[in-house]
Amino acid sequence: MAVASGARAQTDDAAPFYTGVSVGVTHVSNVYRVGGATALPEGTTNSDNVTTAALLAGLNTRLGRQRLSFDGSLQDNRYANNSTLNNSAYSLRGALDWETVGDLSGTLNAQASRSLAQFNLGNGAELVTQKNLERSREVNAVARLGANLRYSLEAGLNHRSRDYTAEQYDRFVYSQNTATLGAYARPGGNVRLGLVARRTEGEYPRYPIYISIFRVGSQTIDYRRNDVDLTANWTTGGSSQLFTRISTSRVHHDPVNGPLRDFHGTTGAVNWTWQPTGKINLGVQLVRDTGQETLLSTTNVNRVGTSWQLNGVYALTGKLSFNATATGSRSERDDGGFDSERTQGIGLRWAYSRGLSLACQYNHASRDSSVLQYVYTASSYGCTGQALFF
């Protein structure tokens, strides 16, 4: 669960390397994300306190023309009442920015994580009350020709995968590879336009087969997706940046008559960041896309959904900052069914020094659904102290 994962290192100052530790305690009101009418196994406590201890490390350095960066966190999560959910988690992220003497440059980055999966994901998942670990991996490579010129070309490869240890979540396990080729132009100094072709091939290797309500086996579902993207990136004086994408998308599944629907239509995204003053940072994200690409509902494998996110940070003083976040997503089915999720969060972060900080956060999450067992409300609050050594 996100509330039980260790905080990543938070520092605004560039440093060649750092190590650190963090310790946090979080209270979770609804661990299993169930509604009041849902019965849990005998002896299960749905309200709990989670203690998280983490080791942190990272580096950010130049190697000639190249820049190498890495951030890592190893976490140990302990539940006061639900000890069977105790788990070890990690979050790793690395990137290499490279360039040649000419106009050729690029980026190679990779990330991997393991954490306790959110309970009651909806979208057809069965209720799980045992420990269920989610593992995600992503590798992305991009090469650019003429990135700083008026016209440029860009090619990329991406691999993304996710799996779970609980077989009840087999429908959400997937792996995909994407290739992109794009042409870009700068009609003005602060505007960049792009035309991009994308090809994605992937599979759900353990999608369940049901007869009535009984699972009788599993099957492999392959899918192919083709997109043509029109993109625009607009920067205004360094204080505001707007990115938009509108795409014609076509998704095909095999077998054709399987449980997942094909899609042909328009998808898109908007991402806006704004810094009106030196103390305020604001951000807005809007996405309409299929499950694997939607901002929030990556488990929504069978439908096109919309999602949004608002976030802001306000520096109250040089050491104290306030943050707020709100997110939402909605997806609808052909039969009239729907899922609608909302989260809100507020927090304070106090930086005593460059390496010592304390952050406290409150979050509230809820889901409304046409399926009664997927409806829930939950809240969490807690604090994390962090020490970094440079």
Helices, by number, come to 0
Total beta strand runs: 18
Helix content: under 10%
Could you spell the SSE succession in H and E letters? EEEEEEEEEEEEEEEEEE
Average pLDDT, to the nearest integer? 90
Strand content: over 45%
Task: Tell me the count of domains.
Answer: 1
Uncertain stretches: 1-13
Return the CATH topology.
Porin
Largest sheet: 18 strands, antiparallel, barrel
Radius of gyration: 22 Å
CATH class: Mainly Beta
Can you name the CATH architecture?
A: Beta Barrel
Structural class: mainly beta
- State the distance separating the first and last CA atoms: 30 Å
Outline, from the CA principal axes? Answer: globular
Notes on the structure:
Helices cover about 0% and strands about 65% of the residues. The protein has a single domain (about 1-390), classed as Porin. It has strands at about 15-30, 50-65, 65-80, 85-100, 105-115, 135-145, 150-165, 175-190, 190-210, 215-235, 240-255, 265-275, 280-290, 305-315, 320-330, 340-350, 355-370, 375-390. The protein is globular. It has an 18-stranded antiparallel barrel. It contains no helices and 18 strands. The protein is mainly beta and about 400 residues long. This is Beta-barrel porin 2. It comes from Roseateles puraquae.
Give a summary of the structure in a few sentences.
Helices cover 0% and strands 67% of the residues. By secondary structure, it is an all-beta fold. The protein has a single domain, classed as Porin.
